[in-house]
Amino acid sequence: MHLFRPKQCSDIAMGAQIETPEQEWKKLALLSQTGLPIHLSEITITAPNDDTRGRLIQAVIAYNLYRLWFSTEKMAGITWWNSVDGCASKNEPSTSGLFTRDMQPKPSFFALDRLINHEWKTNIERAADNDGHLRFRGFKGTYRISWTDRKGNTQSMEYTAK
């Protein structure tokens, strides 16, 4: 999925309906019906300009698209293609990285960091009920559960939510 043209990203920021979230959602829902994992690769989102405004537009588009993609039932992976500005294939936009050419993180890096390392992680501290059960709503994945038993010993285990 490439948004190569800087003007295309600028148009999206101005409200142009290149493809609505509903259209994108329907395509991914159709793919999910196969039962197979979905991997999005070569994600390129170009900043319309190499300035603060352009970089913020890139970050907002990335944040919104990644949220939509992650909410797809069979989504298994999303790969950003050009990590560093100006290091992509010849003729690709030079402002499509998560980092500047001198390795400074751009707002798009922080937007994805916020999603991946904060919003999409389940971190809770909670006491078990009287029967020793703990219920929570969280993301699929492996959890490390730690507790102090009645003798004061620290215990831990891993649990995989599917």
Structure, explained:
This protein is α/β, with parallel strands linked by helices and 162 residues long. The chain has 2 domains: 2-119, Alpha-Beta Barrel (TIM Barrel), CATH 3.20.20; 123-162, no CATH class. The protein is 32% helix and 20% strand. The protein has 4 helices and 5 strands. It has helices at residues 6-13, 21-32, 52-70, 107-119, and strands at 2-3, 38-45, 75-80, 141-148, 154-161. A 3-stranded parallel sheet has the order 1-2-3. The chain has a two-stranded antiparallel ribbon with strand order 4-5. A hairpin with a 5-residue loop joins β4 (141-148) and β5. α3 runs parallel beside α4. It is elongated and about 65 Å long. The protein starts with a strand and ends with a strand. The model has no long low-confidence stretch (mean pLDDT 89).
CATH class of the largest domain, named Alpha Beta
The figure for the number of domains is: 2
Q: Which regions have little confidence, pLDDT < 50, spanning 5+ residues?
A: none
Instruction: Report on the biggest sheet.
Output: 3 strands, parallel
Structural class: alpha/beta
Tally the helices: 4
Quaternary state of this entry equals single chain
Explain briefly what this protein structure is.
The protein contains four helices and five strands, in the order E-H-H-E-H-E-H-E-E. It has helices at 6-13, 21-32, 52-70, 107-119; strands at 2-3, 38-45, 75-80, 141-148, 154-161.
